[in-house]
Every structure is written in structure tokens, then in C-alpha cells.
């Protein structure tokens, strides 16, 4: 399983990175399968450096804040109006798994489309806590986490390896199930200890590390979703005070073999 950081800027696209998006690929039955976890501001442009978006097998949206989902609107345009063919780019509808109401909310974000228009090229299955989504070699289990809106982390399993992506969350018991035994954890680290005191919204570096330690069996910890106003080294340092290994920082274009 190969994981590529398409975008890792938190809350809005930064000067050096799109907002949240992660491309996960694996070989299976003679071809490469690809799923995209989140598609935030600017991510569709960067995604095209790695593959034709029409070749994505599924998109999964952790939640419906724009920094995680709004570029699905551009994906609709690409699949509907690309001049390479007289009809839609795909013979089937691309599944976009998300919280309840994803199709309706994205149609409103697009502005002059209806849910029915989007559904000519996109399907919007609704995620359910702990009910796996199977896409080719991937078993992807959404785990409800702690955020002001309905939000999920994703536990992605393929070929005996596991990726855990927290999405946006504060500390919560569900992180143990999400992270336990994961070979790689991509953890929200939008908050900074001593500066951000609100609860129920985001992890800090130390909270992310504490959750990974408590889960047990985590191989690599990568901090992501860092807003442009954060000093990444402060986030790394706060996590390093808890995490026993090397704390890594996500960077756009970085690829991890899981």
C-alpha cells in the first residue's frame, strides 16, 4: 500500500500545500487501485500530478467542512465536461462516500447544480460508524471521532498493512480503535498546546502522540493538517515529548510505503 500526501494544510490551503487530501494506492488483480481520502481546497489540481482523477476508484470524505470536501465540485466538472469524449469521463458513477447529506451540501457549494445533476457522474453512499467500505483490495472502516460536525477517521487495511487517518478530531476513546496496530498514523495536529484551549475540535501534537501511545502497536506517527500559521517544529516538538520514536511531519507530495 502506497500513501501520497496530496495536501496537508489545515483549515485552508496554505502557500505551499492544498488542504487535506491523501491518495492511497495498491496493486490488486493485475491493476492499481486508488482511493482518495478527502478532497479539500486546491487538492484536485495537485491530485492530477499523480493520476488522472477519472481513474480514482472511490473518494471518502471524513467530514463536510470545505477544507476536506469542496474540490469534489471541481471533480464533478472534470467528469462531466472534459472534452475528451462526448459524454461523462467514466462509464460508471464515481462513489463519494461521506456523512449524511454530502450530495446536497456539495450541490449547494457548486452553486448552480442540483444533487441530481451531481449524481449523473457521482454517487454518494452514506458512511456509517464501524461499517467497512470495501474497494478492491482496501477495507476502509470509518470510525466516528470528536469534531463539531459529523466526522470520521479512516482505518485503511490492504495486504496485511494498516493506515490510520484521524481526519479532524480532538482526543476521544475512538482513537484507540482507529490507531491500534496501525503501521502508519496520519494524525490531525492543528492545535498548539498553550495557545489553543478549545475542546472537541482538533488534536495538538502532544495529544496525537498520546493517542498513538495509548493505542499501542503504532509504527510511524506523521503529523498533518497543520494550518499555515503554525510553526511545524513547535508541533513536532510537542509530540516528541510524548512519542518514543521519530515524529514526522506531512509534506505535500511525500509518499509512504505502508
Structure characterization notes:
It holds the Pfam family Lactamase_B_2. This is Ribonuclease BN (tRNA processing enzyme). By secondary structure, this protein is of the alpha/beta class. The protein has a single domain (2-257), classed as Metallo-beta-lactamase, Chain A (4-Layer Sandwich), CATH 3.60.15. It is 22% helix and 26% strand. It has eight helices and 14 strands. The protein has helices at residues 43-47, 66-69, 72-81, 102-110, 115-118, 174-179, 205-215, 232-240, and strands at residues 2-7, 21-28, 31-37, 58-60, 94-97, 122-123, 133-135, 138-144, 152-158, 161-165, 184-188, 220-224, 247-249, 255-257. The strands form two sheets. A seven-stranded mixed sheet has the order 6-5-4-3-2-1-14. A seven-stranded mixed sheet has the order 7-8-9-10-11-12-13. Helix 1 links the parallel strand 3 and strand 4. Helix 7 (205-215) runs parallel beside helix 8. The longest helix is centred in the C-terminal third of the chain and has 11 residues, at 205-215. The mean pLDDT is 96.
Q: How do you describe this structure in short?
A:
The chain is of the alpha/beta class and 258 residues long.
Amino acid at each position: 500500500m502506497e500513501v501520497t500526501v496530496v495536501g496537508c494544510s489545515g483549515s485552508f490551503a496554505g502557500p505551499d500545500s492544498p488542504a487535506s487530501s491523501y491518495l492511497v494506492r495498491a496493486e490488486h488483480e493485475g491493476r492499481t487501485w486508488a482511493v482518495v481520502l478527502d478532497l479539500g481546497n486546491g487538492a484536485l489540481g495537485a491530485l492530477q500530478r499523480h493520476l488522472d482523477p477519472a481513474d480514482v476508484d472511490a473518494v471518502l470524505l471524513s467530514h463536510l467542512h470545505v477544507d476536506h470536501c469542496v474540490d469534489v465540485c471541481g471533480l464533478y466538472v472534470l467528469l462531466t465536461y472534459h472534452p475528451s469524449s462526448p459524454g461523462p469521463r467514466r462509464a460508471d458513477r464515481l462513489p463519494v462516500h461521506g456523512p449524511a447529506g454530502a450530495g446536497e451540501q456539495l450541490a449547494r457549494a457548486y452553486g448552480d447544480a442540483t444533487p441530481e445533476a451531481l449524481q449523473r457522474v457521482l454517487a454518494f453512499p452514506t458512511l456509517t460508524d464501524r461499517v467497512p467500505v470495501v474497494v478492491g483490495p482496501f477495507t476502509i472502516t470509518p470510525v466516528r471521532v470528536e469534531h463539531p460536525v459529523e466526522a470520521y477517521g479512516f482505518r485503511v487495511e490492504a495486504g496485511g498493512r494498516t493506515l490510520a487517518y484521524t481526519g479532524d478530531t480532538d482526543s476521544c476513546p475512538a482513537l484507540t480503535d482507529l490507531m491500534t496496530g496501525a503501521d502508519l498514523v496520519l494524525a490531525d495536529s492543528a492545535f498548539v498546546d498553550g495557545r489553543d484551549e478549545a475542546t472537541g475540535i482538533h488534536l495538538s501534537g502532544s495529544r496525537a502522540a498520546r493517542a498513538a501511545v495509548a493505542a499501542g502497536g503504532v509504527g510511524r506517527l506523521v503529523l498533518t493538517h497543520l494550518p499555515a500559521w503554525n510553526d511545524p517544529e513547535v508541533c513536532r516538538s510537542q509530540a516528541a515529548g510524548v512519542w518514543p520514536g521519530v515524529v514526522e511531519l506531512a509534506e505535500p507530495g511525500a509518499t509512504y510505503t505502508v
